[in-house]
Amino acid sequence: MRNYMMGAAVAFCSLLPASHSLAWSGSVLVSTPNTSLLLHANEGEDLRFAFFGDRIEENQIHQIHDAWDGLNRTAYPTFGSPANQLFALQAVHADGNWTTDLTVDQVETTEEDNAKLTAITLKDKAYPFQVKLYYRAYKDIDMIETWSEISHTEKKTVVLKRFDSGHFMIRRGDVWISHLHGSWGDEAGVTTEPLTPGIKLIENVDGARNTHIDHPEVMFSLDGKPQENEGRVIGAALCWSGNYAIRMATDNNFVHRIFAGIDSETAEYNLAPKEVFATPKLALTYSQEGLSGASRNFHRWARHAGMLHNGNRVRDILLNSWEGVYLDVDEEKMSQMMEDIAAMGGELFVMDDGWFGDKYRRVQDNSSLGDWVVDKKKLPNGLENLVRTAQKNGIKFGIWIEPEAVNSKSELFEKHPEWALQAPGRSLIYGRGGTQLLLDVCNPEVQDFIFGVVDNLLTRHPQIAYIKWDANIELRNYGSTYLPRDKQSHIYIDYHRGLEKIMQRIRAKYPDVVIQACASGGGRANYGVMPYFEEFWVSDNTDALQRIYMQWGSSYFYPSNAMAQHISAAPNHQTGRVIPIKFRCDVAMSGRLGLELQPSKMTEEERAQSTQAIKDYKTVREVIQLGNLYRLVSPYDRKGIASLMYTDDAKGKAVFFAYKMDNFVNQVVPRVCLRGLDPLKNYRVRELNVKTGNRPCFLDGKTFSGRLLMNTGIELPLGGDYASCVLELTAE
Ligand code: DGJ
């Protein structure tokens, strides 16, 4: 079948605004600077997916077709056309018909500021039911966002049983996937495996957070075992904070079929006539520069396309009180901590859990969530005094909240027990502290309450510059007292739509307050919430050795200024491991640097080294936080070291990190070749965060050509246990 058309786009008269133009029926080429996605959209036929990969031009469309002998597949398969295929959409129509048969109705394109939006309307052959598929291609970023909008004008509700955001195909071959898998304290571990026949399903059923175990993102390496800097890679990220399913099906066909969307197994959606159901975005990228190349595309998109709030701003260096005092917050300790972090050169202090509660005071983790008033016994002079102390010390002030949750031991629960999610006739299933519940964020009154928590804090204390927004409980009680009977199946969806509404209100009023997404650590590192948050807490596990693995995995999809990384105490509170302070600093410095310990318990050496780390970090933080990441030697490859680096866009400055992962006599570790430099430039090396009392390493002060650094490589100054180094490279 030769169902493509060649030639120039024909704009013909339409009733659409001037910024729209109806494109021609035929081939639809969606392109970014270096990638293209090719669809065949012939009016009255089903939409076909032909290709996603290296960029092609309009006049080369026929070459793809000729080279592949017309290999293409239905782009958005539906149940029933035919019934024996995997599908992206399943709808039960108002008359009970389970089948849907969509064909192309029209193609529209809209020019946006930095992107081109293509919308393809598919209509059912027999029912007033339609799906609009969107493809947004960025003009200066290699990212395509795709999603669907489902609507109808049937006489009654249509039941959506599956509603994927997108579907695409990858030619079978030696295709491998890398995805992030873990647990509390071990988030974002990289799991790598070949795509073999059968169905591989990555899903989440937590209900409220979705990245503790598996992330809604996958990398596909098309040329065999994944390499950090070589080979073709397709990256996919589902921008959703709730339950999801990513299905990868390999049957007796030539292709792997990838389906991604909200998990519909537990969330069928009753769609009223004229209501529009919009699925979350699925972001797709392609790179010929290995996993690191695909990551750089995600980072650029996150920072510049608004997928990370204030994504292109550098972040402050902070001290968080949690591991320093836990719930034992009081005015004296907070004030002392502020003085200490200011003296070390820090810029922000964040008071964590433990500051609130009146009738029920937050002295243990089993009460007070919901009662967002200051505990006057702990803080007799209120937040006002803390904010003043911060100002006196020349630093900013931040605060912890967990506004989606409530304890049964709270004034809020006494007043509004119906605001907690609950199943009728069932006993409540509690979480943390034996009393914690989740509020019904589907309910607009609850949304107003949560917005009010933030609004009250920020109107009363406009000096608050940072909020740590925690979420320590899954959705355990399935039932909403607000939603009607026929919408109880919407809870997993409406919860997250409610959360989005709250965040949109907060962001409209408070665009500049930095907000961290925390969820018992890294449970909310997803592009569903990141458009409203500046950063996420990578993990509650602050052990520097294990952090190298978690930060490595997180960086597959998230830029470094979104990754909160803190220097903590030794022995580490989660693993008990004793790691030298320089190594702890060097690991935290590779992302958004902070501290999380009690400064008054630091040794002289720890204080001196951390002060040095903060000082040096300030001189290079722009390159680290906003630069281009090259992962060089993976800790997962077990070569005894891990190494990564950042460069600025002009290739004038770079920051290099290396860590010794284990230590043996006669251990041969790799000589490391750097990346992303200009081969024709010469770079002068300066060692940063030199170990207190030591002389800088042998590389310090030397100059090397970019070519030598990249093609020949450097030996690492990593002698001994837990050795590490941070080098600044400056073009001369
Ligand atoms: C879980 C978070 O991940 C921790 O950092 C801390 O904020 C606690 N919650 C406080 O309860």
The second-level CATH architecture of the domain at 10-306 is Distorted Sandwich
Task: Give the assembly state of these chains.
Answer: single chain
Helix content, binned percent: 10-25%
Overall shape? globular
Alpha plus pi helix count: 12
CATH class categorisation of the domain at 10-306: Mainly Beta
Bound molecules: (2R,3S,4R,5S)-2-(hydroxymethyl)piperidine-3,4,5-triol
SS-based structural class? alpha+beta
Q: Please outline the major beta sheet.
A: 11 strands, antiparallel
Average of the residue pLDDT scores: 95
Range of strand content: 25-35%
List the helices and strands and how they pair.
Layout: E1 20-22, E2 26-31, E3 35-41, E4 48-54, H1 61-68, E5 73-74, E6 89-92, E7 102-111, E8 115-124, E9 129-138, E10 144-152, E11 158-171, E12 176-181, E13 189-194, E14 198-204, E15 214-221, E16 233-238, E17 244-250, E18 255-262, E19 269-271, E20 277-278, E21 282-287, H2 290-304, E22 318-320, H3 322-325, H4 331-343, E23 348-351, H5 382-392, E24 396-401, E25 405-407, H6 411-415, E26 436-438, H7 444-460, E27 464-469, H8 491-509, E28 514-517, E29 535-537, H9 544-554, E30 563-568, H10 581-588, E31 592-596, H11 604-626, E32 628-633, E33 641-647, E34 653-660, E35 682-688, E36 703-705, H12 706-711, E37 724-731
Parallel strand pairs: 22-23, 22-31, 23-24, 24-27, 27-28, 28-29, 29-30, 30-31
Antiparallel strand pairs: 1-7, 2-3, 3-4, 4-5, 6-11, 7-8, 8-9, 9-10, 10-20, 10-21, 11-18, 11-19, 12-13, 12-15, 14-17, 15-16, 16-21, 17-18, 25-26, 32-33, 33-34, 34-37, 35-36, 35-37
